[in-house]
Write a structure and sequence with these properties.
The structure holds two protein chains of two kinds. By secondary structure, chain A is mainly beta. Helices cover 0% and strands 51% of the residues of chain A. In chain A, strands 2, 5, 6, 10, 11 and 12 form a six-stranded mixed sheet that branches. A four-stranded antiparallel sheet of chain A has the order 3-9-8-7, with no helix packed on it. Chain A has a two-stranded antiparallel ribbon with strand order 1-4. The chains are: A mainly beta, B mainly beta.
Chain lengths: 114, 114
């Protein structure tokens, strides 16, 4: 079975600082990997996805993630944090079933201070 | 383009009761999935419907059931509600039933069981 581990339930950064949210996955098959963002009282919005093409994936809002098979990682980064980036971020994996099923991590809350 | 819409937004039920949650998929999407997100957790896959058939199910008991209609809208039914069923229920649609297709989520229905 596939799984995702997100290190750090909370990450605090200052506005303008680098954002790094960690995600490690476990999968017996080549995975598809996703990052989603959830703002308060809303559903999840797709930031970016890795589907076995380029290992460096660029997403919306200036975020990007790099797939590293040797480290089983898919960390999310952004060079400069904005106040509007404060939200909950979820990493998810799929690919080991015959249907579309995402397995999510427990999430990381990003706090951005002025 | 209309996104995924869910109704109602909030619901309060008593233990033992039954509940029906509704979801309209995004235009052009024929696959609908349901997820349960408990407070402070990542979403958990309940099941998926493709062309009106359930084609995948997570680790949820049979009292969780669903339907998909010819217009690809969907319902989630939960019988014999338990306190632990209190959660945000998210509906997601996608244009095809493939593991690398990103899901488009609605804003969810917040269910409280007392």
């Amino acid at each position: 079975a596939q799984s995702v581990t997100q290190l750090g339930s909370h990450v605090s950064v200052s506005e303008g600082a680098l954002v790094l949210l960690r995600c490690n996955y476990s999968s017996s098959v080549p995975p598809y990997l996703f990052w989603y963002v959830q703002y308060p009282n809303q559903g999840l919005q797709l930031l970016l996805k890795y589907t076995s093409a380029a290992t460096l994936v660029k997403g919306i809002n200036g975020f990007e993630a790099e797939f590293k098979k040797s480290e089983t990682s898919f960390h999310l980064t952004k060079p400069s944090a904005h106040m509007r980036d404060a939200a909950e971020y979820f990493c998810a994996v799929s690919g080991d079933t015959g249907f579309q099923k995402l397995v999510f991590g427990t999430g990381t809350r990003l706090l951005v201070s002025p | 383009e209309t996104g995924v819409t869910q109704s109602p937004t909030h619901l309060i039920k008593t233990r033992g009761q039954q509940v029906t949650l509704r979801c309209s998929s995004q235009s052009g999407h024929n696959t609908v999935s349901w997820y349960q997100q408990a407070l402070g957790q990542g979403p958990q896959f309940i099941f998926q419907y493709y062309r009106e058939e359930e084609n995948g199910r997570g680790n949820f008991p049979p009292r969780f059931s669903g339907l998909q209609f010819p217009n690809y809208s969907s319902e989630l039914n939960v019988n014999a509600l338990e306190l632990d069923d209190s959660a945000l229920y998210l509906c997601a649609s996608s244009p095809q039933d493939r593991n690398n297709s990103p899901l488009h989520f609605g804003n969810g229905t917040r269910l409280t069981v007392t």
